[in-house]
Amino acid sequence: MRLILLGPPGAGKGTQAEFIIEKYGIPHISTGDIFRKNIKEGTALGTRAKSFMDKGELVPDSLVVEIVEDRLKEADCKEGFLLDGFPRTEVQALELDKVLEKMGVDLNAVINIKVNPEILVSRAIGRRICRTCGATYHVVNNPPKSEGVCDKCGGELYQRSDDVEETVKNRINVYVNETSPLIHYYEKRGKLVDIEGEQDIDVVSEDIVNALRG
Ligand code: ADP
Ligand code: ADP
Ligand code: ZN
Questions:
Q1: Mean pLDDT, range 148-175, rounded to an integer
Q2: Domain for residue 65, yes or no?
Q3: Which secondary structure element, helix H or strand E, spans residue 97, and what is its range?
Q4: What does the pLDDT read at residue 107?
Q5: CATH code where residue 74 lies
Q6: pLDDT in tens, 25-44
Q7: Which of 28, 142, 159, 186 would disulfide-bridge 192, Cβ 3.0–4.6 Å?
Q8: Ligand 1: which residues within 6 Å by Cβ?
Q9: Using CA positions, which residue lies closest to atom 4 of ligand 2?
Q10: pTM
Q11: How many domains is the chain built from?
């Protein structure tokens, strides 16, 4: 399975990614996670990316494409992968097409998770993430059994610094202007699968599996 998860910030991409990678046994490639890891480790890439992420802007295409290209060359991507949060611009999509062509592989589907903008802000603001395993929770919609503690690994939950109202609103605008044209891009190529994202988490997961069965 070679898949892309598309959708605005807070749509549920990361949440569904946890399910999809388990179900299909493929690696999860989240460009946001890669940047956050680099920020935590204090790398040069992390320092450059942080200035854009803090404002809710996109990191320049030139920085992103190379990272993804390198990651896709790793052995665990041979049988498939799940791209989450990439591509986010038409330039990135075109570059990805070139990389896949070089690799001699094609995408199975682009999963487009649809959620209305009013709901996205509260989803992102209530999001909490495990520092240890990366699992995603929501303080109201999907709370952990014990506050602040990961159900899966006992790790500490934290809030992303860009999950504050103003930055989230900017990220949604950036999505509308720069990323949403990719819906049409993949529709034209016959890859798009629309998923109704305003349902319970497990119903969304079921819809994804059914859609991929075709
Ligand atoms: P994305 O990766 O698209 O930004 P996440 O998967 O991190 O989105 O989800 C954003 C927030 O919304 C998280 O707090 C998550 O627990 C919650 N969430 C995800 N899917 C749903 C859903 N179907 N219904 C309600 N809340 C959800
Ligand atoms: P979300 O899905 O909640 O918007 P991500 O973790 O995917 O969050 O992305 C967080 C931030 O990382 C983005 O706001 C952007 O600054 C940066 N980023 C992640 N992926 C990309 C990408 N493909 N292109 C440019 N910037 C990216
Ligand atoms: Zn955890």
A1: 97
A2: yes
A3: helix 90-103
A4: 97
A5: 3.40.50.300
A6: 999 999 999 999 999 999 99
A7: 186
A8: 7, 9-15, 123-124, 126-127, 136-138, 141-142, 199-201, 204
A9: 9
A10: 0.96
A11: 1
